[in-house]
Write a structure and sequence with these properties.
416 residues; alpha+beta; Beta-lactamase; seven-stranded antiparallel sheet; three-stranded antiparallel sheet; 14% strand
Amino acid sequence: MTDTLEHPAPAPARGSYAHGFGPLARQFASHLEHGKEVGAGLTVFHRGKLVVDVWGGVMNRRTQRPWERDTRVLLFSVTKGIMAMALHVLADRGQLDWDAPVATYWPGFAKNGKDRITVRELLNHQAGLLYLDEPLKLEQCLRSDGAAAVLHALEAQAPAWSVGEQQGYHAVTYGLYARELFERIAGEPVGPFLRRELLDPLGSDVHLGAPRELEAKTATLYPPPTPGRVARMVVSSVWFPGSAEARIAKSVLSTTSLQRKAFLNPAVGPKGVLAYDTPEVHGAALAWASATGSAHGLARAYLPFAGHGTFDGRQYLRPETLAPIHRRQGWSERDAILQKPVGWSQGFLKEERHLFSPNPESFGHAGMGGALGWCDPVDELAFGYAMNRMDWRVRSLRCLNLCHALYECAPVRERG
């Protein structure tokens, strides 16, 4: 498919956009102009056609190397949506039943009261397996000689609550459990499977376990400085005590809180989130956080999900496989971990309607710091946003501004 974008991106952004999508391109450029980004990329497809493809800034502050169209970055929990894609391919082929007990495919999972937990409940963050009692280190998840310890921790864990009683974001454990489940069914690692079955045919550069040679194209992450992040959270706690950020800040300070348990095991050490921004992690299949790719590649990954299973004349998934994701299967007005209204459908994030999309059928997954892979099957939109300056909020204001600008674009607003 050949895409022609007739309008050059407004400075200081580079790239181009199609007629009617100027509001989104200008919003992206304004973030660069006002120093809100270090480097970033944004790509949108509408009804299978590329309509916005813009980028700008730098990959690295020290070297000032420009951010390019194919610049990659660590995507954090956007990875969870990529992992869900692999599971949907298995379900489409009849190899996975969402309502079967996980133990059907993984007998050892049944230990300690987990025998009746279904695949759907696990992926929709309702299983109460949001942390591990056995302490692990990130290094154990990266090395083959740590696999036995990780597996033992997963199988030994007892649910924190009765299934269906609550919903709590499985920030790390989603990836650990989902990958083990996938590989027991598929009989192969998830990374190569995704490349072969979805990502390569779609022309997506997203990898769950990237080859080392792609490091040269990978941007450096810049999380908020710890003092600044703490100061912002303190201010949020004082002035906006009911905000999700304020509630999380208070919880993480407690050594026994669910949030602390959910986010800080495996332990990452003094580097904090930067412990993930290494070639070793980029090359691993940590199915909760280690996917890397460009904004363009991320949008491409969602093309068949935006198009009811089909893109460019090829059917990747049957429409009936995707239809259940369009409705909220799980929802909580205050998720036990994220402390905000949120839900999931078979591993994909379902957000509040005023955030990423006004259409409740939309889905995808956001990542810590602000990256987003998303699709809207109503308006047939596939959206990818990736950046290296991380936001401290649960949902990045820059990302939300872009999403809102997209729905102000005439071709989407008018559904013409």
